[in-house]
């Protein structure tokens, strides 16, 4: 009789653990693998990160956060939020302007210092890309940190918040890169 109870207790514990894992992964946190070099030097190809799925509303997502979103039916992208709803975005002389104000992007300094053949980020205005002067309500404008080699809002347009899976800033693998990224 005690052997049967012990097996039952182990089965209950296992079922509870599996249900908890599914709930946590579905609604709260999930692992993601960086695929490609579009976020270098901030993130490297094959870095493993945790995605916070709780913060997917516009009040939770801030400018310069790193987000993961469904780019296509079978592909998720990881990019940096540059523009929020209502923002006017422009790039000129390798400087980001949001609503007419220049912004520094310290995460780009390493690449900017290495570039010898033109700007890191080609000049553009938001209206040239999406035909509107400002980022539409319920959408964000995203770019990869490796500006010359990133497929981002300059190519795919703004991203609906409904497609955002969550924010990420914790690298857990490789251990040598473990920590929070900016």
UniProtKB/TrEMBL annotation:
Top-tier EC class: hydrolase
One Pfam assignment: Peptidase_S26
Keywords, alphabetical: Hydrolase, Membrane, Protease, Transmembrane, Transmembrane helix
Residues that span the membrane, as ranges: 13-34
Lineage: Bacteria, Bacillati, Bacillota, Bacilli, Bacillales
Membrane disposition: Single-pass type II membrane protein
Stretches assigned to the Peptidase S26 domain: 8-173
Descriptive protein name: Signal peptidase I
Keyword Isomerase: no
PROSITE patterns: SPASE_I_1, SPASE_I_2, SPASE_I_3
CDD domains, A to Z: S26_SPase_I
Similarity remark: Belongs to the peptidase S26 family.
PANTHER family: SIGNAL PEPTIDASE I
Domain of life of the source: Bacteria
Catalytic reactions of this protein: Cleavage of hydrophobic, N-terminal signal or leader sequences from secreted and periplasmic proteins
UniProt KW Protease keyword: yes
Natural source organism: Aeribacillus alveayuensis
InterPro entries per the UniProt record, alphabetical: LexA/Signal_pep-like_sf, Pept_S26A_signal_pept_1, Pept_S26A_signal_pept_1_CS, Pept_S26A_signal_pept_1_Lys-AS, Pept_S26A_signal_pept_1_Ser-AS, Peptidase_S26
GO molecular function, one term: signal peptidase activity
Enzyme nomenclature, EC number: 3.4.21.89
Compartments, as annotated in UniProt: Cell membrane; Membrane
């Amino acid at each position: 009789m005690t052997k049967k109870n012990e097996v039952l207790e182990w089965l209950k514990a296992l079922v509870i653990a599996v249900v908890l894992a599914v709930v946590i992964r579905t609604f709260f946190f999930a692992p993601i693998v960086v695929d490609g070099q579009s976020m270098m030097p901030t993130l490297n190809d094959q870095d493993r990160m945790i995605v916070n799925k709780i913060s997917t509303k516009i009040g939770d997502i801030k400018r310069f956060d790193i987000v993961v979103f469904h780019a296509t039916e079978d592909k998720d992208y990881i990019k940096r939020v540059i523009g929020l709803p209502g923002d006017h975005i422009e790039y000129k002389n390798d400087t980001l302007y949001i609503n007419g104000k220049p912004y520094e992007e310290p995460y780009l300094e390493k690449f900017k210092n290495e570039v010898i053949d033109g700007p890191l980020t080609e000049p553009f205005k938001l209206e040239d890309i999406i035909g509107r002067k400002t980022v539409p309500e319920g959408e964000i404008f995203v770019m990869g940190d490796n500006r010359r080699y990133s497929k981002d809002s300059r190519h795919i347009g703004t991203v609906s918040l409904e497609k955002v899976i969550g924010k990420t800033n914790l690298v857990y693998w490789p251990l040598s890169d473990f920590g929070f990224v900016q």
